[in-house]
Specification:
heterotrimer; A mainly alpha; B mainly alpha; C alpha/beta; A: MetI-like fold; 0% strand; B: mainly alpha
Chain lengths: 300, 314, 684
């Protein structure tokens, strides 16, 4: 990054023209974007995710068959030119169901992540900035929460509350909240020791304003990375819950659900399991590659 | 150091009390009536109330918790109203099965992960590093049922080397591999991702540290620098990471055991949760928490023994 | 030069190094050549970013991965370090060349006992067995004057104090009696008294070992003290080199001259002397410069300087400067000459700040740490109080209590007759009138806000300026008062240099027309040339606006320059307080005496150093009686251990806490100084 040169006493040569200075801010943002475009990890990840985002948005126009259309004559057919990925036990076209299956997962996971971010950022800012007993209690509770497998927690809750996409979003979002809060909190703990926070307190700023306007803009880096990684895990979790029969229900073309249904036919129709599993793999790996790319560029 | 261990032990116990209460409260408070589930929709309300009274589910929560916790400690875990079997032998047997599977996965993957993580760090920025990092990154991302499906299709269905569903192996090593290798692969994928990443990060940090510079500028051969100075400091955090992964492992077991029809505690918990079988669910989840806390406690003590900073602090 | 060349231990020839950053090569060292004779100490000085550490690391061939050596040779004996095979290099490192650097705490392996870490050198280079190596290590520890070396050898690094850690590093480096010792800022970050100890050790080790030394430092005083010859680096070029004494007394490069004039020398006072500063700033890293690298900032630069790079011109046999017009350099007038100091607003007798019996404790019960243990501070309107003390003295906690960032445990703070003891409940008026300038300008400005919005917000909250138009007017005045330009308002702090950032921070604290500003080490993160400009600004503002400062600094020359009165803190208490000149001259508290004697100065004059015994006690378990008795050079006996010392009144309104009466102390302290003068060399 270039430094604006300045004379000790005004009027002595060695400075930069004002217009250069004004464009520095834009230059910095452009530099981040350029870094991302140069990052192979990020670009490959982005391409993988882009395919599924397009599928989720436009599957109605892309799929060769109606993903729900049952065809009793052509059940469990191996991949062919008519059915690229074969057909399932009800004769539905697996290719069409894989394309359409991007929609449910890409609805549930981002919403759950957004919910977790909202709660996590709020909680993280509050506990990190104010410290004190609230923070101690919170830390203890998160420790306790982490002692049992989160998927079991989700199973417990969904088994009781009922199995709807809305409940899946709620459960994942709520479980993510303390996890994201922990990341935000540790970033806040570092920032609050910086002297600009003390300076803000000295000029009489109130706590909420310091948190939102002083600290938050400086921790967007870690939050972006955490959010992207969490999105990956949200997809992971939503798919797993669907696989366990606790998430979205049949006849949705959800990938996790498709793999679960395929379990009974795996000996005779491997394609029913493999293609949705592959789809899911590319999506989660893509998201994680994006997260890694962003992290690398931010660290540079 | 004795004081440190006592303090960690105390904290673990406090966490255990919080966890046990939360498990109990979460399971009991959530909607869903045990008696109703047992008796079915056609039983009369009076019958339901009677059964609830018999099970004690109409008492206040804290009182029920204390009774339950007392019984748990005494070893009186009751019987499952749904499976109609005593809970304790059931849970402990399933737990044993799961520990066999998890132990198998850990034994195989921890050394490999640490080794590759360190290898990546020593080749920082090189091709080996990129390959190991990206592989780890992708492995962590993959849900267990996805990896499990792949290995079943390839190694069980297409190649026929392994059974498509696993059972508890006998002591014969061939059988151990035959039964456990496939279901442990999805777990190992995720574990590899976490552990190799931590080993790599720890080693890279240690390699960049000033004390490593001191060791290099002392003229020590590279093997001495890495063996004596770098690894000693870089692998300490990895111990903690492995212990934290025990918590993850059980979550993974729920999926893997379901996929491979393996009779472990994960599958038991899933079924108990779905069928609202609280007498089975509560002790099973609590046992998981205890195992996790024990693992963490052991890791803390291990780190304390190996790290003079903690060992010598009062 | 040729005589030196024959016997030189190390010859660096045309060393040119670049760093690769974002596919660009940025040159950090450009054609640097110098030699170090056998047993000679060569000092390499320069401000941050001049390439001095790169040079040191290149000597050990331990450059970062993104460094590229574009050319040059480093001849060690008759082999080139830069092309030596890995196994040769490994044999040299630790045996023939060794290094000690900044921050000894991180340079030692935290999980290996220090004895073993030293023993390793013997085992690998001298092939000693395990127990012999350890015995040799313990022997070496006593050579670097560690008491109870066999006990220390069994300790881990974190159990040692900073001074002890650095001694261990020296023991390790000198274990094999190397031909070359590279010292990279070995005392930076250590307290003044510890720094003095380490430098004493270096001098003494030089008498025992015939090692050549490359001493890299930003501190000219230290280099003057330790080294025979000095090279000055500027923007990656060696611009002047020569015998230390000659170079510092009659520099022949305009930059060296300017750098020397920037430092406040003992005896300079803000009332009479203005500090010189260097106009302009360093050229950016990797800039292609056709002529002399210093031409843009040089008062005697001509066209030739901008077009043609100068070579090192010999001043005499041993002294050379990279300047076409080096003969004119002695005639350059001080840049501050002719600029009158702003007349001071009169110091009124009215008390502005009254701190009574202030106590700040952290934690509670038996673990309580008394950072400030009952302190009274009085500052009059328009007065500058200097607050001096080493780390752990409690000066930062005291400062934070005064500005209201933390609440004191006991005691009261009264400011402009308002009770402001509790920081949180301060009203706007109290906040507006009492502001603070922080140590690190990188941290003190929010990186996501523009300079303009940072200042505007302060105007809004502190000065209560609400209307946009009035804000604009005030903003412009404020900007001008700290000599920033309007174009700086639109950028974020990260694109400003350190000195500019500190100007913004100063402007912010002055937004509400304060009557007192607390300056916490405001120049310690800055280079010498920038420091001078910031001090000038602070002094101008203080004199023009009639504000009071509480000025915290570890640099006694700086404090003496700005402060009207000085308070010296030790372990949470004020031990010496009074008008600066009185505190700086005998009689003064023995601790003040030790602090003063620890300052390395450019005056090449042998002075008896007051050595402090032992290490700083923990503030959670302070010594009984006089807190300083465990280390006091003037320790009397049991009375110091058992009784708290009284305040003694000395001449000129100074008071100090000691059992020794002023007359006696005066006698002791002047006696020693005379003895030292008699023993020292006559001033050259």
């Amino acid at each position: 990054m270039s430094t604006v040169e300045q004379s000790d006493l005004a009027g002595i040569p060695g400075g930069t023209a004002p217009e250069d200075v004004a464009s520095l801010r834009r230059a910095r943002r452009a530099e981040l974007v350029r870094g991302l475009l140069h990052s192979k990890t990020f670009m490959i990840g982005a391409a993988m995710v882009a395919v599924w985002v397009i599928s989720a948005l436009f599957w109605r126009w892309i799929t060769p068959y109606n993903p729900q259309a049952v065809d009793p004559i052509n059940t469990l057919k191996a991949p062919s030119s008519a059915h690229w990925f074969g057909t399932d036990n009800l004769g539905r076209d697996v290719f069409s169901r894989v394309i359409a299956g991007a929609a449910p997962v890409l609805t549930v996971a981002p919403l759950a992540t957004a919910l977790g971010l909202l709660g996590g950022i709020t909680l993280g800012l509050l506990t990190g900035y104010y410290r004190g007993w609230v923070d101690d209690v919170f830390s203890r509770l998160v420790d306790a929460l982490l002692t049992f497998p989160l998927i079991i927690l989700a199973v417990l809750v969904l088994a009781s509350l009922g199995r709807s996409p809305r409940n899946v979003i709620l459960v994942i979002g709520i479980i993510f909240t303390p996890l994201i809060a922990r990341t935000v909190r540790s970033a806040v703990l570092i920032e609050r020791e910086r002297e600009y926070v003390a300076a803000a307190q000295l000029r009489g700023e109130r706590g909420p304003r310091i948190m939102v306007f002083e600290i938050l803009p400086n921790i967007t880096g870690p939050i972006t990375v955490e959010g992207t990684i969490r999105l990956g895990y949200a997809i992971f979790a939503a798919a797993t819950l669907a696989f366990l029969g606790l998430g979205i229900q049949d006849p949705s073309p959800d990938w996790g659900l498709q793999v679960a249904n395929a379990r009974a036919y795996v000996q005779i129709a491997w394609w029913m399991a493999i293609f949705p599993a592959l789809a899911l793999s590319t999506l989660v790996v893509g998201v994680h590659l994006i997260a890694d790319g962003i992290r690398r560029v931010l660290e540079e | 150091m004795g004081r440190y261990i006592l303090k960690r032990l105390g904290l673990s116990l406090i966490t255990l009390v919080i966890v046990s209460f939360t498990v109990f409260a979460a399971a009991e408070v959530l909607p869903g009536d045990v008696a109703r589930t047992v008796l079915g929709p056609y039983a009369s309300q009076q019958q339901v109330d009677q059964l609830n009274h018999k099970l004690g589910t109409d008492q206040p929560l804290v009182k029920r918790y204390l009774t339950w916790a007392g019984d748990f400690v005494k070893g009186d875990w009751g019987t499952s109203p749904i499976l109609n079997v005593p809970v304790r032998p059931l849970v402990l047997d399933r737990l044993k099965n799961s520990l066999i599977l998890a132990g198998f996965a850990l034994l195989l993957i921890v050394p490999i992960s640490v080794l590759l993580g360190v290898l990546a760090a020593l080749n920082y920025g090189g091709a080996a590093d990129r390959i190991i990092t990206i592989t780890g990154l992708s492995f962590v991302a993959l849900p267990e049922f996805v990896v499990g499906t792949f290995v079943i299709v390839v190694f069980a269905v297409q190649l026929g080397w392994f059974p498509t569903s696993s059972s508890v192996p006998d002591a014969n090593p061939v059988d151990i591999f035959k039964q456990l290798l496939l279901p442990s692969i999805p777990l190992m994928f995720v574990l590899f991702g976490y552990i190799s990443r931590m080993a790599r990060v720890g080693t890279v940090e240690s390699l960049r540290s000033n004390y490593t510079r001191t060791a290099v500028l002392k003229g020590l051969p590279r093997r001495q620098v890495v063996g004596r100075h770098v690894l000693r400091n870089s692998l300490l955090p990895t111990i903690t990471v492995v212990s934290v992964q025990v918590g993850y492992l059980v979550g993974g077991l729920v999926v893997v055991e379901t996929l491979f029809s393996y009779p472990g505690i994960g599958q038991l918990i899933l079924n108990a949760a779905v069928s609202h079988d609280l007498p089975v669910l509560e002790p099973a989840v609590l046992m998981i928490a205890i195992i996790y806390l024990v693992a963490n406690f052991v890791a803390d003590v291990l780190v304390a023994v190996l790290n003079p900073r903690v060992r010598l602090a009062t | 030069m040729s005589a030196v060349a024959e016997q030189a231990a190390v010859r660096i020839q045309g060393l040119t190094v670049s760093y690769r950053r974002r596919r660009k090569l940025l040159r950090v060292l450009n054609d640097v050549s110098f030699e170090i004779g056998h047993g000679e100490a060569y000092g390499l000085v320069g401000e941050s970013g001049c390439g001095k550490t790169t040079a040191a690391m290149a000597l050990m061939r331990y450059l970062p991965d993104n460094a590229v050596v574009d050319g040059g040779r480093i001849m060690f004996g008759d082999e080139d370090v830069l092309t030596a095979s890995d196994s040769t290099l490994r044999k040299w490192r630790g045996e023939r060349m060794a290094m000690v650097y900044q921050d000894p705490g991180s340079a030692l392996n935290p999980s290996i006992k220090v004895g073993e870490q030293i023993a390793e050198v013997y085992r690998f280079h001298k092939h000693l067995g395990k127990s012999d190596a350890l015995a040799a290590a313990i022997e070496m520890l006593s050579t670097v004057q560690i008491s109870a070396p066999d006990r220390v050898a069994r300790r881990y690094p974190h159990e040692l104090s900073g001074g002890q850690q650095q001694r261990v590093m020296f023991a390790m480096a000198l274990a094999t009696d190397p031909d070359l010792l590279v010292l990279d800022e070995p005392t930076t970050g250590l307290d003044a008294t510890v720094e003095a100890e380490v430098l004493d050790l270096v001098e003494q080790l030089r008498a025992q070992f015939n090692t050549s030394i490359l001493f890299v430092s930003h501190n000219l005083g230290i280099v003057a003290r330790v080294c025979e010859r000095v090279g000055v680096l500027y923007a990656g070029r060696l611009i002047e080199q020569g015998p230390a004494q000659e170079l510092f007394q009659s520099p022949r490069h305009p930059y060296t001259l300017a750098l020397l004039r920037c430092m406040p020398r003992l005896g300079m006072r803000k009332d009479t002397d203005r500090l010189d500063s260097i106009a302009g700033s360093l050229p950016p890293l990797g800039a292609e410069i056709a002529g002399c690298v210093y031409a843009d900032r040089c008062p005697i630069a001509r066209d030739r300087c901008r077009n043609e790079p100068p070579q090192i011109e010999p001043v005499n046999e041993r002294h050379g400067a990279r300047c076409f017009y080096h003969e004119q350099v002695p005639g350059i007038p001080p840049q501050a000459q002719g600029i009158e100091q702003v007349p001071a607003a009169a110091v009124e007798q009215e008390a502005l700040l009254e701190v009574e019996q202030l106590v700040k404790a952290y934690g509670s019960g038996t673990n309580a740490l008394l950072a400030v243990a009952g302190v009274d501070v009085h500052v009059a309107r328009g007065e500058v109080l200097g607050l001096v003390g080493e780390s752990g003295s409690g000066k930062t906690s005291l400062a934070k209590c005064i500005v209201g960032l933390i609440d004191p445990t006991e005691g009261t703070i009264e400011f402009e007759h308002m009770n402001v003891t509790k920081g949180r409940s301060r009203g706007r008026e109290a906040r507006r009138r009492l502001q603070m300038v922080f140590q690190n300008p990188d941290n003190a400005l929010n990186p996501s806000h523009t300079v303009g919005s940072i200042l505007r917000r302060s105007l809004q909250l502190l000065a209560g300026v609400r209307s946009k138009r009035q804000q604009d007017a005030e903003l412009e005045a404020l900007t001008r008062s700290v000599r920033l330009e309007p174009r700086h308002l639109d950028v974020r702090p990260s694109s400003l240099s350190g000195g500019l950032k500190q100007r913004v921070a100063i402007a912010r604290s002055f937004a509400g027309k304060p009557s007192m500003v607390l300056c916490d080490e405001p120049t310690s993160a800055l280079d010498v040339s920038v420091q001078a400009a910031i001090l000038n600004l602070l002094v101008d503002l203080q004199r023009r606006e009639g504000v009071s400062y509480v000025f915290i600094s570890h640099d006694l020359a700086v404090v003496r320059y700005v402060a009207d009165r000085i308070a010296v803190m030790y372990l949470g208490q004020i031990v010496d307080v009074g008008p600066s000149e009185a505190v700086f001259s005998a009689p003064h508290h023995p601790y003040t005496e030790a602090l003063l004697s620890a300052i390395p100065t450019l005056d090449i004059e042998a002075k008896a150093r007051i050595k402090l015994r032992g290490t700083l006690p923990s503030p959670s378990d302070p010594p009984s009686g006089c807190r300083f008795h465990t280390r006091c050079p003037r320790y009397l006996g049991d009375i110091c251990k058992t009784e708290e010392p009284p305040w003694q009144e000395s001449t000129g309104g100074q008071t100090y806490r000691c059992h020794i009466a002023p007359v006696e102390l005066q006698r002791l302290q002047t006696q020693d100084a005379d003895a030292a003068d008699a023993a020292g060399d006559p001033v050259g």
